[in-house]
Design brief:
The chain is an alpha/beta fold. 45% of the residues lie in helices and 16% in strands.
């Protein structure tokens, strides 16, 4: 290549990744990166490559990921804050202690990512996900974080629109990776949880009425009592229970309750 004197201007390092190209602001070459001083030249050189969806040059301040944390446990909030605040590209803009506050703070701050506890007072995490996804534009990018990892929790959260799912106690590296992926619009679900979801998708779902009947069965109600509580005939209750046993592949009520509890269809005792 002919030698050439570049004009004095800010340079940009271009790092080549397996799935595209990412521009990062640097003053010198770093590792395998190389320096290109000119936006037009960048495009001419990189045109044939598959570019990352967000390769456009931005100042470092616009690349900060703004995060809202919503959890009713102070220890969890403090732990997440400590992990996220240690990163230069992540900023916590607000913390909520319940579901209602989470919605209000989302509207006030418009964060890039919401980390949301699935079980909170006033409005639980699933209600918050459903509300935000149905009425806010652009749609928020939400990570559900919970103590549990039941199939039904995963299914409901992702169906409602959550982009990521984490179990409390996840390693800090996993949390940070998930935040960054979700901020870029990618889905991020740990392999173990993804496996649970895949398994659950192959099973027939219980209807809303069947879930009602199952909860009453778990509470110890007889068919007659269930019928009275739900204003349906005892014959209809029996039909629902038969369907429940078939869908859960259970031999009887006790096994059905155990299976449903394990999957998160009904709360444990």
């Amino acid at each position: 290549m002919n030698s050439r004197t570049w004009p004095r201007r800010r340079l940009c390092a271009v790092g080549l990744l397996a799935d595209g190209v990412v521009f990062l602001p640097f003053q010198r070459a770093v590792g395998n990166s190389f320096l290109i001083p000119d936006a037009a030249l960048k495009l001419s050189l990189l045109g044939p490559l598959k570019l990352h969806a967000r390769f456009a040059m931005k100042s470092s301040s616009t690349n900060i990921i703004r995060v809202l944390i919503a959890d009713d446990h102070p220890v969890v909030r403090e732990g997440l804050s400590a992990i996220l605040r240690s990163e230069k590209d992540i900023k916590i803009v607000a913390e909520a202690t319940d579901g209602e506050e989470a919605c209000k703070l989302y509207d006030r701050h418009s964060p890039d990512v919401v980390i949301l506890d699935l079980r909170m007072p006033k409005k639980d995490g699933l209600q918050v996900v459903t509300e935000l996804m149905s009425s806010r534009r652009p749609k928020p990018r939400i990570i559900v974080m919970t103590t549990y990892e039941t199939e039904e929790d995963v299914r409901r959260a992702l169906r409602a629109g959550a982009k990521g799912y984490l179990v409390k106690g996840a390693l800090s590296e996993q949390i940070l990776e998930t935040v960054r992926k979700v901020a870029e619009g990618e889905a991020s679900v740990p392999p173990k949880i993804a496996s649970k979801l895949t398994e659950s998708l192959g099973r027939p779902e219980l209807s809303a009425r069947e879930l009602q009947v199952l909860r009453h069965v778990a509470a110890g109600s007889s068919n007659k009592e269930i019928g009275q509580k739900l204003s349906i005939t005892e014959h209809t209750v029996k039909a629902h229970i038969k369907s429940i046993l078939a869908k859960l592949n259970a031999m009887g009520r006790t096994e059905a309750i155990a299976i449903a509890t394990k999957r998160g269809l009904i709360p444990g005792s």
